[in-house]
Design goal:
Elements (H helix, E strand, L loop, with lengths): L3 H14 L1 H9 L1 H9 L30 H5 L8
Helix pairs in contact: 1-2, 2-3
């Protein structure tokens, strides 16, 4: 099983090299990952792919450690 960081790097590299994959990834990320890399994302997980511009930066804020969401899903997992 690939680590999340390795998988992320593979997806980014493929998106840079393959414009059709990049467009599919932006339009339907779950289908793009499954078709290109065989990675299946569960229906219970929402996956969004966005493209940063040269003057943009996206900061993702995870759930608070005190939130019920994190407590309910804190079981260790592999990748996504």
């Amino acid at each position: 099983m690939l680590s999340e960081a390795v998988l992320r790097n593979q997806v980014i590299q493929k998106a840079w090299e393959d414009p059709s994959f990049k467009q599919r990834l932006l339009a339907d990320p779950k289908a793009a990952l499954q078709e290109a890399l065989g990675v299946i994302i569960p229906d219970s997980v929402t996956l969004k792919a966005v493209e940063e511009g040269s003057n943009e930066f996206y900061l993702v804020i995870p759930p608070s450690p005190s939130s019920d969401v994190l407590k309910a899903t804190a079981a260790p997992r592999g990748s996504w």
